[in-house]
Design a protein that fits this description.
The structure is a single chain. The chain is of the alpha+beta class and 136 residues long. It folds into 2 domains: 90 residues, no CATH class; 36 residues, no CATH class. Helices cover 25% and strands 15% of the residues. The chain contains 3 helices and 6 strands, in the order ααββββαββ. The strands form 2 sheets. It has a 4-stranded antiparallel β-sheet with strand order 1-2-3-4. A two-stranded antiparallel ribbon has the order 5-6. Strand 1 and strand 2 form a beta hairpin. The longest helix is centred in the middle third of the chain and has 14 residues. The protein is globular and about 40 Å long.
Length: 136
């Protein structure tokens, strides 16, 4: 998967889409593939498989390690929409997982496809799982 992530980072950096010009310097400097771009933070994946959080509103010079399983799953689920090969990294649904109440297990909010569901798009959630601060 390392090679695939490195390739996708290079593609991101050479893409001419001006909507992402603001994030390219951080991707170049810190070497991560953006999977989720929020209002105040971005979540990404490095070629070594580690997840990072870039708080572009607070500290544009620093990328922090992300070690929150909930946000990692959400980032992978969102990233796999653009980079299908990342789908193999999404964990299988554990036995204790429950269907998401917000989307009734579909992974999408009915009538609002642009909104990311509380389950991150997986259709399931782990009971009692604590989440770190939202990435915006």
């Amino acid at each position: 998967m390392r090679d695939a992530i490195e390739t996708r980072i290079q593609e991101f950096l050479t893409d001419n889409d001006p909507r992402f010009d603001w994030v390219r310097p951080a991707v170049r400097k810190h070497g991560f593939l953006p999977l989720y771009l929020g209002w105040v933070a971005a979540l990404g994946l490095r070629p070594n498989g580690s997840f990072v959080r870039w708080d572009h509103e607070d500290d544009r010079e620093v990328v922090k390690p992300l070690s929150d399983p909930y946000w990692e799953r959400m980032a992978l689920c969102q990233g796999a929409k653009k980079y299908p090969e990342l789908g193999s990294l999404i964990p299988q649904r554990p036995l204790q997982a429950r269907d998401c109440e917000s989307c009734r297990g579909t992974g999408q909010i009915e009538g609002a496809l642009q909104i990311i569901c509380a389950c991150g798009g997986l259709g399931w959630m782990l009971p009692g799982e604590q989440r770190g601060p939202a990435p915006g």
